[in-house]
Amino acid sequence: MLFYPLQFEPILKERIWGGTKLKTLLNKSIASEITGESWEISTVANDVSVVANGHFKGKTLNELIDEYPNEILGTKVYAQFGKQFPLLFKYLDARQDLSIQVHPNDALAQKRHNSFGKAEMWYVLQADENARLIVGFKEKSSPEEYLTHLNNKTLLAILDTKKVQPGDVFMLNTGTIHALGAGIVIAEIQQTSDITYRVYDFDRVDANGNTRELHVDLALEALNYEKTEAQRWYEKQENVSNQVIQCPYFTTNFIKLNDTFSKTKTTDSFCVFMCVEGDFSLNVNGDSYRYGIGSTVLLPAALTDFQLSGQASLLEIYIS
């Protein structure tokens, strides 16, 4: 079997806070003006990605993994996770502020939901002037202080905000209270989990006048009340893999592509490229594949030698 770079049909999600930038900026075929998320690679239950190209077109990612676990996932990933794809890749468009929320860690998620936890990283693709996001507490807090401010609708007074610009990266470890702010488009890389505890939603209502469910009690145990620093800084040398994040769940590198760049990897892990600027070609086994901004491509672990070429900014993600 000759494996090749895999693309998947985007799974588009309407959100009360969504907009149209997934179409205007990232070329997604959205169906509404409140499209908030494009799930690029997913094996979340009821949202499993379907291959969009080549020999495997029409097959689900789960079907491929079931048939070719070592070749798709990688020997090390398969040994660690079995036939589970451990990561979820998305693009998000926040026309409005997202809810203030928190995600549980592995232990709590396993106990409550039989799921992975949800550590995630954000890469800012686009940000309107003065766009901000919320990440963590300004100072060390406590359940008592947090609940007092939450009940008094003054929670923002004790939360840390960051003004953002394209290229900024934030690592949101589990337990970090956070919210993506209005006017921001991000690439998101996270554990395979859809567990979110929403604690405050700015009292907004949907088209039918309904508020969204809150999970205040569930969040209490999940929150990390310590002051944390979520922003990460990294090198941007051209035509090399600049490490951005290395954590137990994934490694993310930044590639500023301005030429042809040959790479060799092991069969330990799959590799994913997210194109966050420009366009590029991926040359594998004598074939060339072209991608533009907003593209996400999965290189099966069986592919070890390839070339990148073009003028682009890429996120390179794998499990180390």
TrEMBL record:
The keyword Nucleotide-binding does not apply. It holds the Pfam family MPI_cupin_dom. InterPro entries: Carb_Metab_Reg_Kinase/Isom, Man6P_isomerase_Firm_short, MPI_cupin_dom, PMI_typeI_cat, RmlC-like_jellyroll, RmlC_Cupin_sf. SUPFAM superfamilies: RmlC-like cupins (SSF51182). One of its GO terms (molecular function) is isomerase activity. The keyword Methyltransferase does not apply. Residues 244-318 form the Mannose-6-phosphate isomerase cupin domain. Keywords: Isomerase, Metal-binding, Zinc. Gene3D superfamilies: Jelly Rolls. Residues 8-115 form the Phosphomannose isomerase type I catalytic domain. PANTHER family: FRUCTOKINASE, TRANSCRIPTIONAL REPRESSOR MPRA. This is Phosphohexomutase.
